[in-house]
Amino acid sequence: MHQAYEDEAAKEESSAMRARLGVISGNIDAFAIIALGSEAKDAAEEFKGTQGLDLGVTYNAGSDAVYMVRYKAVGAENKGGDKFEGTTTSVGAAKSYKLNDKARMWASAMYTMEKKSSAYGSSKDVESTELPVTFSIEADANDWLAVRGFVAKNVFIGEEKDVDGKSTTVDGLNHGLGASLKYGDLTVDGSLILTNQGDVDDNVGTLNVAQPMNRISVTYNF
User: Fold this and answer.
1) Which residue, 76, 72, 68, is CA-closest to 40?
2) Domain 2-172, what fold?
3) I want to staple 170 with a disulfide (CB 3.0 to 4.6 A). Which of 16, 85, 111, 158 is the partner?
4) According to the model, what pLDDT value does residue 133 have?
């Protein structure tokens, strides 16, 4: 798969080539996404991908329970030879519940360990560990509309260590709303993130609609 992006006004462009593989065997699903090459540049800097790997396995244990393991590794180098690398390892479980004929609920927990370079060319790393627990509910309002919501928060574990080993508590609170519009074989999904830890325009506790197209998808079943 090849992806490309260009913004002439901002003088930004990027391209990436990836291979996607997947295997299904009984109750086990596995996938691998391997970066074959990537480049990006703007008016001030140029970057080249040095590694890119995304591996995951899920196991359907029956009774609507699923267990999962995922490992990601990324790396890049700028034109001056400074390198950036990061790894993320996640282990989790999820279970679905049928509340009634029109409503469903999901509960999941995912322990995540992340390690990344603090800056290009730096030998010091930033580390974090989190255990977010998520509850989601979806209900059919009628034949053409389904509404849903979720809340996620770190439980017991939520910590980030800077390059000096100083720890900071990470609350990890996120919640949002979504809806699906159904027109025969066509489904339009959209969602709004209500809390995002300040990552997007410092919008903690506010309705984030700054980039709504990033949260809209269209599916058509042939």
Assistant:
1) 76
2) Porin (2.40.160)
3) 158
4) 94
